[in-house]
Amino acid sequence: MQVERVPQTQLQSKVTTQQKIQSAYQGINTKLASLKTAADDMLKTTSWQIGKATSSSSTVTATTVAGTVPGSVTFDVTGVAKAQVSTAKYASATDPALAGGATKVGISIGGAAAVDVNVTTNTPQGVAEAINGAGLNVRASVLTTDQGTVLQLSSTKTGEANGFTITGLAGGAPTDITPAEDAVIEVGDPTAGGYTVTSSSNAITGVLTGTTINVTKLENNVTVTVDADNGAVADKMKAFVDAANSVMTEISTQTSYTAKAKQPLTGNSTVRQISQTMLGQIGTGQSGYGSFSQFGVELDRYGKLTFDREQFLKAYADDPTKVMNAVMAEDPTVQITTAPDGTKIPKSKMTAVMGLAERISIAANNSTTNITNAIKGSESLVTDLNKRIDAWDLRLENREAALRKQFSNLEVSLGKLNQQSTWLAGQISSLPTPSSNG
């Protein structure tokens, strides 16, 4: 049966090989997806508009997002956002918490219609459990204090819009020990051209585009400044270059060959073409701009990309628009208007110039399509091989049954021969021995 299984074993070996090929393809596809994400990130205008915020106060901070516009603003913090906290006092934890024969409390948030909350146990703890189970933006707890039992009600959100009222408690409305308040900053004199900005939270937006100002206490004469963060743009560019190198390294690993080891995609022309395409997109530079080495990106002698951060920062500081046009997607305002021989190209035949990131994004997308098709082809082959392996299971089962029957018959025949041999031996041994005198 070991001999009979050789064809099936060979098919199983082919399946294992194809699975290794699929895994190698998938590894490359993962790297290509990361590269396309990094390239597409460089195609966003907001990726080139990154700010770094500073504050003159230790109690005021500022954060920025992509698309931040540089600027500065000086203001007074005249209000800090607070969440409402109210309390109702009882002589003991077992005192009735509801007014009269009431069985529910009404809670209104931000002036909206009251929501009725049914209370099954008429004690402070029963009221707290009912409120917490209602799923509202109000939480309740029962505290044991020097002044007796206190039912404390707290809003889960800051700001006046999240203030609440509660009805139906014994003793009337609870006391607001911390009123709901908004955060407010005042820029200049509101009565003389200045303005105020109000927020229900202490994170205030809308003063500087793409910047959030976070306040924590009342304070005057605070200045928040946002400057362009070219270093963060350089970090994104480096991530883009690293993603491209990661693809080429993965391809090199999966297609390598040594005397000791042969990788799954050794000699695979589809995969090798990806590297050649990527290198070609980078090495040709851009018409009207020239080599990408001008902003620090170039190929080394090993076929890998290098990124000179200082060169990028210098080129970007000197002419941000020029560098952006060399990296970003098609820009109809950047066109080839002159042929290589110096002649003017008719406007009808002008074509938009594609930036480095656009080229790489397209190449990565096309390569992903090719690799995905290769994976599907390999999966189809594995499916076919597994069907053939399953067919061999039945064939081998029938073959084994036939062999067992054959050998069983041989054993029966051999047993009969052994019996005949034993009988003949007995007959021969029973024959008289010839006398010595004949």
UniProtKB/TrEMBL annotation:
Homopentamer. Residues 1-84 form the Flagellar hook-associated protein 2 N-terminal domain. Keywords: Bacterial flagellum, Cell projection, Cilium, Coiled coil, Flagellum, Secreted. Residues 180-419 form the Flagellar hook-associated protein 2 C-terminal domain. This is Flagellar hook-associated protein 2. It is found in: Secreted; Bacterial flagellum. Required for morphogenesis and for the elongation of the flagellar filament by facilitating polymerization of the flagellin monomers at the tip of growing filament. Forms a capping structure, which prevents flagellin subunits (transported through the central channel of the flagellum) from leaking out without polymerization at the distal end. GO terms for biological process: bacterial-type flagellum-dependent cell motility; cell adhesion.
